[in-house]
Write a structure and sequence with these properties.
This protein has 47 residues and is α+β, with helices and mostly antiparallel strands. It contains two helices and two strands. Helices cover 28% and strands 23% of the residues. It starts with 8 loop residues before the first strand and ends with a helix.
């Protein structure tokens, strides 16, 4: 996010860089966490 300089999502690569470069379409990142999801709300209880 450019205004507040924080991540909007956290993901894990499903392939290494060479495999990603060889693909022309399709998913390459598995989404683990996004802004305002339950983990985001849980973390706010510690700050």
């Amino acid at each position: 996010e450019e205004t507040k300089h924080r991540a909007l999502a956290v993901g894990k690569a499903m392939f290494d860089a060479l495999e990603m470069e060889s693909k022309s379409s399709g998913k390459v990142i598995k989404n683990i966490h996004t802004i305002q999801d339950s983990i985001w709300e849980f973390e706010k209880s510690f700050t």
